[in-house]
Amino acid sequence: MLDKSTIKEVLDVAMAKGGDFADIFIEEKKTTGIGCEAGKIERIQSGMDMGAGIRVLSGDTTAYAYTNNLTRKGLVEVARIVNHAAHGLKKEVSLNLTKVKPSVDFIYKERPDEVSTERKVAVVEAADRTARAVDSNQIKQVIVGYADVVQKVVIANSAGVFVEDERIRTRLLVQAVAAADGKIQTGYEAVGSLSGFELFDRCHPEEVAEVAARRSVQMLAAKPAPAGKMPVVMAGEAGGTMVHEACGHGLEADLVQKGLSVYAGKKDQEVASPEVTVIDDATISDRYGSYRFDDEGTPARKVELIRKGMLTDYLYDRLTAMRETNDSNGHGRRESYQHKPIPRMSNTYIAPGKTDPDKIIGNIREGLLVKKMGGGQVNTTTGDFVFEVTEGYLIKDGETGPMVRGATLTGNGPDVLRTVEAVGSDLGFTIGTCGKDGQGVPVSDAQPTISIKQLIIGGTAHPPERSAGRIIRL
């Protein structure tokens, strides 16, 4: 997108008044979105956005500006704007002309920008037909959303890092609304990955639609969830919303350093049950939150955050790592060139254990089995959280009983992690768009089947004052 000599000149200007560090993030992003409602294709959108963001770090001061003008003159002007935040002596920029090699590689078998619109529309229409066919009387509304992104980036900085990368993501979301006897219930299912159109070779749109539609219909017959404290089994298929919200955000280094995390100052201390190991790994093939490099040009890596209950690490970007004279562990992410990077999760999960999932359910005398989670929020300062349950069942004498609706889970992240009594041998992933500081980034999270000694079921909870949560965009 830009030659290296121009990039070096821009970085030279950015550092002209001193400063500790400067970088440039150049992005070209092609997007396609298709929406279907009321059985009709309502929108087909495609577009391209290009721009660059330039940052200067000087002590605890960060200056960031962006532009759509990718000419030499336009970029130099932005570099002059941000260099006013710097102080000290001018530093020479050494731009390494050798590309940084990624720690992992990903293969895109069928690029979505080479797939016809007709084939993409066919995927959406197949999902819509299947969802409606589940129950033509009770299914009242179906919304299907398809999206793909082809993002090319160039990242360079004053430390000599130069990276070129391409990220391709594809996803499909299905939401079905069922109604009967004055009751309305919604079912939702989504698939997506760092991959091309080959996503639908393993995740058939018809299967995604059927899951969403059946969930909405089944919820019509569900009984209201009981309120009170009881044991909870989180099925592997529920995905990792619990670990993402109750744990992951609190392990992002910016919140830790600001004193806004319940995990601040607890490295090498016990923060969870010995059964619990928590990992964030951006190198997993085909996962929605994966990448070769983060948005600062740091190669992706697997980071063990909690090992057998002991807090071992946080998620760092370059700025938070510099504050502790450490290296970034590859978690500086941004929504686009219009945003500065901050520490973010990628694919976060509780590592599988050795217990048979059926045995975990069988050991519960009375409790709640959660098979699908909805949205959630967490107060990272205290660890308090609240989640919605979109598919749950009562457990009675070790057997899965009737479906319930309207359940919420309320608790405290560290307390819950300390009361995990069993960890299953399975592992189930879900996808989402994680919101923080006004930015959304693609993530995956996962967990095996786990048994939690006790949670508060039902009731209402106010949104935390300081919160971060998953958001869904159709």
Automatic annotation (TrEMBL):
GO terms for biological process: proteolysis. Gene3D superfamilies: PmbA/TldD superfamily. Residues 111-220 form the Metalloprotease TldD/E central domain. Signal peptide: none annotated. Residues 228-459 form the Metalloprotease TldD/E C-terminal domain. The keyword tRNA processing does not apply. It comes from the Bacteria. One of its GO terms (cellular component) is cytosol. Keywords: Hydrolase, Metalloprotease, Protease. Residues 22-80 form the Metalloprotease TldD/E N-terminal domain. Pfam families: PmbA_TldD_1st, PmbA_TldD_2nd, PmbA_TldD_3rd. PANTHER family: METALLOPROTEASE TLDD, UNCHARACTERIZED PROTEIN TLDD AND PMBA. Belongs to the peptidase U62 family. This is TldD/PmbA family protein. The lineage of its organism: Bacteria, Bacillati, Bacillota, Clostridia, Eubacteriales.
